[in-house]
């Protein structure tokens, strides 16, 4: 004769399929409601990387433009470079610490034969999207010809890190 | 403690329950695959972007003669947009429209690359977020510089189709202080390349 189980034994057996059903439904629900969250996140990171690249190139483009104007002015390059940079500083974050460095005279300008080399070390740019932020540090050396045309650039990355 | 018959009975009664669990798991796996097939992996706009140079227009030096200056001066296109935000009176929108010579030259330089596709859209517009700190920041499209679809340029706002590829626009941001001294997020959205029009 089969021994009758007690009530607690019955409850466990009944709960087993119910729990399995609930977990299956929960898993399916998360499947259905998952709407490409990784895609959005990846897009956000892609935008940050794109913007940090833009900001770095923005600084380089500014140096080329300011350097061109300063060399063509045919007067004291250092002083003129600082003055022109101050005029162009729109006080936006995109330029990082570039305008601050120039304002403090933290750059070198040397004549190399017919050309001029402008060096700025310890530059950084930042980009932010939502709660994600990235900071990139780099050193920069731009070579100008005697007409003020940028003929070479050397960008040495120091680090890129999340903030 | 159950005797042998009791243990056998328990095994027999457990079997249908296990069968039921296996059937439920089978249904789950079947439905999972069905749902996965129903929701194909979409290619994000990030992978639709052009690899390089799509923002190069923003970094192009442009010669402009602003109303308060005696002579024309060179500035980056991006700075022109920021300057326009700081003082719209001295930077008219005509500097940043398809009629501008610099814009035409830019597209002339880029057209061999961009014309490779059948549907080409070039767009540039500016937005900012509302600075009401009590509410969730709200997106405002404040300036529509240009929208060119298959060679046709559209005036401010563009046709309805402009929103169809809005998700694929890239943007660079900058912060400016408002009159209350709060930082307000501004952005320049751009898109140069193929687009799908519905």
What does this structure look like?
The complex is a heterodimer of chains A (163) and B (198). With 163 residues, chain A is of the alpha+beta class. Chain A has one domain. Chain A is built from four helices and four strands; from the N terminus they run H-H-H-H-E-E-E-E. Chain A has helices at 7-33, 37-72, 77-88, 98-103, and strands at 108-112, 115-129, 132-144, 150-162. A four-stranded antiparallel beta sheet of chain A has the order 1-2-3-4. In chain A, a hairpin with a 2-residue loop joins strand 2 and strand 3. In chain A, helix 2 packs across helix 3. The longest helix of chain A is centred in the middle third of the chain and has 36 residues, at 37-72. In chain A, 21% of the residues are buried. By secondary structure, chain B is α+β, with helices and mostly antiparallel strands. Chain B folds into two domains: 1-41; 46-194, no CATH class. Helices cover 32% and strands 26% of the residues of chain B. Chain B has helices at residues 4-38, 45-48, 77-86, 101-114, and strands at residues 61-64, 73-76, 120-129, 139-149, 152-154, 170-177, 183-194. In chain B, a hairpin with an 8-residue loop joins strand 1 (61-64) and strand 2. Chain B is elongated, with a radius of gyration of 29 Å.
The biggest beta sheet of chain B is recorded as: 5 strands, antiparallel
Q: Number of helical runs of chain B?
A: 4
Shape of chain B: elongated
Number of helical stretches of at least 4 residues of chain A: 4
Q: If you compute it from the alpha carbons, what radius of gyration of chain A comes out, rounded to the nearest whole angstrom?
A: 30 Å
| Helical amount of chain B | 25-40%
Domain count of chain B: 2
Percent of sequence in beta strands of chain B: 25-35%
Mean pLDDT of chain B: 71
Q: What structural category characterises the helix and strand content of chain B? A: alpha+beta
- The pLDDT mean of chain A sits at 84
Portion in strands of chain A: 25-35%
Strand-pairing-aware structural class of chain A: alpha+beta
- Total number of beta strands of chain B: 7
Number of separate strands of chain A = 4
Radius of gyration of chain B (CA) equals 29 Å
Order of helices and strands of chain B: HHEEHHEEEEE
Q: Quaternary state, please?
A: heterodimer
Model regions low in confidence, pLDDT < 50 over at least 5 residues of chain B: 41-52
Number of domains of chain A: 1
* Outline of chain A: rod-shaped
């Amino acid at each position: 004769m089969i021994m009758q189980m007690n009530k607690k034994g019955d409850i466990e057996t009944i709960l087993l399929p119910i729990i399995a059903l609930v977990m299956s439904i929960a898993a399916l629900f998360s499947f259905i409601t998952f709407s490409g969250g990784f895609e959005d996140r990846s897009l956000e990171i892609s935008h940050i990387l794109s913007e940090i690249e833009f900001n770095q190139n923005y600084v380089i483009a500014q140096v080329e433009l300011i350097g061109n104007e300063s060399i063509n002015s045919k007067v004291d390059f250092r002083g003129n470079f600082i003055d022109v940079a101050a005029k162009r500083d729109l006080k936006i974050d995109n330029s990082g610490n570039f305008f601050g460095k120039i304002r403090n005279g933290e750059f070198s300008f040397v004549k190399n034969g017919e050309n001029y080399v402008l060096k700025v070390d310890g530059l950084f740019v930042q980009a932010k999207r939502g709660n994600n932020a990235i900071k990139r540090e780099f050193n920069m050396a731009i070579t100008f010809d005697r007409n003020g045309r940028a003929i070479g650039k050397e960008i040495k990355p120091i680090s890129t890190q999340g903030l | 403690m159950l005797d042998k018959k009791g243990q056998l009975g328990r095994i027999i009664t457990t079997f249908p329950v296990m069968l039921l669990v296996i059937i439920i798991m089978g249904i789950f796996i079947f439905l999972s695959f069905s749902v996965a097939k129903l929701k194909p992996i979409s290619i994000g706009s990030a992978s639709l972007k052009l690899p390089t140079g799509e923002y190069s227009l923003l970094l192009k030096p442009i010669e402009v003669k602003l109303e308060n200056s005696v002579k024309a001066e060179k500035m980056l296109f991006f700075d022109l947009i920021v300057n326009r935000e700081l003082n719209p009176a001295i930077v008219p929108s005509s500097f940043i429209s398809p009629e501008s010579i610099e814009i035409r030259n830019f597209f002339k330089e880029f057209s061999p690359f961009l014309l490779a596709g059948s549907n080409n859209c070039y767009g540039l517009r500016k937005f900012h977020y509302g600075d009401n700190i009590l509410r969730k920041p709200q997106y405002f499209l404040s300036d529509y510089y240009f929208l060119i679809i298959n060679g046709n340029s559209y005036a401010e706002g563009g046709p309805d189709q402009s929103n169809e590829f809005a998700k694929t626009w890239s943007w660079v941001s900058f912060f400016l202080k408002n009159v209350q001294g709060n930082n307000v997020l501004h952005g320049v959205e751009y898109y140069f390349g193929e687009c799908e029009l519905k």
